[in-house]
Structure formats: structure tokens, C-alpha cells
Amino acid sequence: MGPCQRHGIDPLAYMTDVVEKLPTMSNQDDLSPLLPS
Which of 15, 26, 32, 35 is the most buried (most CB within 10 A)? Predict the structure, then answer.
């Protein structure tokens, strides 16, 4: 959660977004958009 805070992102909103999107990811290349940056 530290990276979220450093980037000014609400950790709960970030985790909610990741949990919703993760099942639709087909491979490891798709994971980079989920990183908090």
C-alpha cells in the first residue's frame, strides 16, 4: 500500500479496481496497467 500512498492513490480504491480487473487478465503482460503509477 506504500506505493499507492506515494503516488497519491487511495489504497482501497486501488485494491478494489485490481480485484475487479484481475479475473479478466489473460497473461502476465496484462498486469502492468494494474500497477499504481
Answer: 15
DSSP H stretches of helix in 1-37: 2-6, 11-21
pLDDT digits (tens, 9 = 90+) for 1-37: 788 888 899 999 999 998 998 888 887 767 778 877 6
What is the pTM for the complete model shown? Answer: 0.65
Q: How many CA atoms lie within 13 A of 11 on its CB side?
A: 6
Rg of the chain in Å (alpha carbons): 10
Task: Tell me which amino acid residue 13 is.
Answer: A
Q: How far apart are CA 24 and CA 26, in angstroms?
A: 6
Distance CA 25, CA 8 (A): 25
